[in-house]
Design a protein that fits this description.
49% helix, seven-stranded parallel β-sheet, globular, 14% strand, alpha/beta, single chain
């Protein structure tokens, strides 16, 4: 069972006047953009990722703290949660934006790539929430923001593994939302379409579909920051993606015909 050392008083630097956000995937893309937006809004940011140099640069620019960690390792979330609590004493908002992808026939998915996607995209957010949620519940305040994907809502050809991890994350958010009603802790699910980030370069296949066109990471970050302060718990980026998601929900056959025609 994962455990977190919540003591270590000599290392804590509680900041009662500044809310504390832990952002995973802060080395680039949505995580980096979100960290910048939150820092501008007065948050103390704890920045996690695997690129130490980029994290240090971001921390220097935003006044945050770099907490490098590889969430693909099963014990990575526990180490990160412990480091975050040791650094700041609490986490007021968790933004789980770290993610990996792969595109190609599912039968050809490399086993190690599939394992890493499951760990980073799905298992790590679940583990981090499990470790940080008790403190939020005790304080009766907090926000859990999960970065999902339209792929996890409607499925995408040749991205079955990735879509499965994001679909699982969406059901986790939905279930947790029911559980946490009235506790002061809010769950938010942000559902982007394609985003203009290094994600596609890292998965080894460029973005090839005609629709939807990629949006800037900063646009997703604006949505993340907005949903922390509002009661909206499920947001699409761009907003019009909510329409095909609803079509898929009520008429999956119609949606599949549309997807086959328009890609």
């Amino acid at each position: 069972m994962d455990t977190v050392d919540t003591e270590a008083p000599e290392r804590r630097t509680d900041r009662p006047g500044r809310p504390v956000a832990l952002i995973t995937g802060a080395s680039s893309g949505i995580g980096l953009a979100t960290a910048t937006r939150l820092a501008d809004a007065g948050w103390h940011t704890l920045l996690s990722g695997t690129d130490r140099a980029r994290l240090d640069d971001l921390a220097e620019r935003t006044g945050g703290r770099a907490l490098p960690e590889d969430l693909a390792k099963p014990d990575g979330p526990a180490r990160l949660a412990e480091a975050a609590l040791a650094e700041a004493g609490r986490v007021d908002a968790l933004i789980a934006s770290a993610g990996l992808g792969w595109r190609g026939p599912y039968a050809r998915t490399p086993s190690d790539t599939l394992d890493r996607m499951i760990e980073v995209n799905l298992a790590a957010p679940l583990r981090l929430v499990r470790l940080l949620l008790p403190g939020m519940l005790e304080r009766r305040r907090g926000r859990i923001v999960l970065i999902g994907s339209m792929a996890g809502q409607v499925g995408v050809r040749e991205e079955a593994g990735y879509a499965a991890t994001k679909g699982g994350l969406a059901m986790f958010a939905e279930s947790l939302w029911y559980e946490l009603r009235g506790t002061g802790v809010g769950v938010r699910l942000v559902l982007p379409g394609a985003v203009d980030t290094p994600f596609f370069d890292r998965r080894g296949t460029p973005y090839q579909r005609e629709r939807p066109r990629p949006v800037p990471a900063e646009r997703v970050a604006d949505t993340v920051v907005a949903t922390i302060a509002t009661g909206r718990d499920r947001l699409y980026v761009p907003q019009w993606l909510g329409f095909p998601a609803r079509v898929h929900g009520v008429a999956p056959g119609v949606f599949r015909r549309m997807a086959a025609r328009f890609g």
